[in-house]
Amino acid sequence: MTRLPLRRAILAGVIASAAVAPIVAPMPAHAQFGGIVYDPTNYAQNVLTAARSLQQINNQIQQIQNQATSLINQARNLASLPFSSLQQLQQQVQRTQQLLGQAQRIAYDVQNIQQAFTDRYKGAALTGDHAQMVANANARWEDSVGAFEDALRVQAGVVGNIDGARTTMDGLVSASQSATGALQASQAGNQLLALQSQQLADLTALVAAQSRAQALESARHSAEEAEGRERFRRFMGN
After folding, report:
1. What are the structural domain ranges in the chain?
2. Which residues pair with 31 in a beta bridge?
3. What is the pTM of this model?
4. CA Rg, the chain, in Å?
5. pLDDT digits over 216-238, tens only?
């Protein structure tokens, strides 16, 4: 009988102690897999760090690609144009110069022109004896005929250069359209300007040859008029 009241007293004391003691919240437990502790917070930080590292690597790769592209563009800008028309243009200019250099009798030279006009077109050349007048008139006629022939030859040479200029222009336009850099485009433009200069040189030569022929013909007519007056004066005097 004495054991039952004693057990009841011990149980009542335990219950009272449990009711009075504060309840302590348990710490968040970490999942365990095969003895390895899994920490969600640490895992999230590691993922974020890895993502940032990957972004830095991507940025570096992009910078390297940009630098490579810049170097490629610089190489293209420094590449020379594979097409050159300089030799063809020089040959065309030389042919025109040769035609001008083959001018008959009165060449394109200041001293030569002055001497020829002194001998055949003015002054004593128009007041000599009959034989001298006839010789000078024949020389002036040959001067005019030769000048017109020279003008026709220059015209033929200029016309002959047109086909070469067309071929050169086609090649330059094709090269400029396929230019891969600033240097090639600039060289193509310079060669097109050189082609225009060559054509202007041909035009200048043509105008000079025609003007020379016309000037000599006009000078011949003027000399004939002066010689005619001298002949008339002598006839009336006799």
Report:
1. 41-78, 86-237
2. 38
3. 0.63
4. 53
5. 999 999 999 998 988 888 888 86
